[in-house]
Amino acid sequence: MKLIVGLGNPGKKFDNTRHNVGFMAIDQLAKEMGIALDQKKFQGIYGKGMVNGEAVYLLKPQTFMNLSGESVRPLMEYFNIDVEDLLVIYDDLDLPTGKVRIRQKGSAGGHNGMKSIITHLHTQEFKRVRIGIDRSARQTVIDYVLKPFSKEEAEPIQLAIEQTVKACEAWTTSSFPEVMNQYNA
Fold it and tell me: What b/e sequence results for 106-119 when a residue is b if at least 16 CB atoms lie within 10 Å of its CB, and e otherwise?
């Protein structure tokens, strides 16, 4: 059993913003994996399906970014999902736009959604996919992450989402170190 969580903020006004790239990846994963995101519980929207014989849950917390752990932990407890089977997809200001970094564990790196999950799970020992959104020298972090991607960013972000989807699908049949070796290249 696997749980793949995409971080973002709920509401139309946040669609396609930099901070919602995790939601964008989950939407694409749902489409590719044939999983309907039609369940509303645990302060989130989620769905479950079978992928390569593996039960996969996809979750988009609806708590707003800074409280993401309030959605993740109850779902994990209810469905008895181990932290080893958790993967979180989120934006990263410290990576160039469209760069994908896959890791087995790590700190929050200043990301409030990750801080919340780490706090609620009492560990940072869970898998993650960071999608680079770069950093702006002209805007505050809050203003920058809550703005939509520019036309120039659209293609690299779409390619990053496609790479993320492939990595998540590979995780249903391969070990995570194998996925990292293949998709961190």
Answer: eebeebebbbbbbb
